[in-house]
Design goal:
70 residues; two-stranded antiparallel sheet; globular; single chain; 23% helix; 1 helix; alpha+beta; 4 strands
Length: 70
């Protein structure tokens, strides 16, 4: 499964704001299976390590740069 890109997340959050959720707290999953959630507390970001994932369409291993919110 391909991870969410920054521009895709921005579009999703923009839609949430337009639908009236602009003052809600953002929570992210604790793991890939969504066994729990936690809020994002910091307002900073930085460059992270490359993320390795399986492309569902081509069945190939891919790498993408990552952005860390800390």
């Amino acid at each position: 499964m391909r991870p969410v890109l920054v521009k895709e997340l921005a579009n999703l959050l923009s839609l949430a704001v337009k639908e009236g959720y602009g003052d809600y707290v953002v929570q992210v999953s604790d793991d890939e299976e969504c066994n729990g959630y936690h809020p994002i507390y910091q307002h900073n970001f930085g460059i992270g390590e490359d993320v390795r994932y399986l492309d569902d369409k081509t069945n190939e291993i891919r790498y993408r740069n990552s952005l860390i919110i800390d």
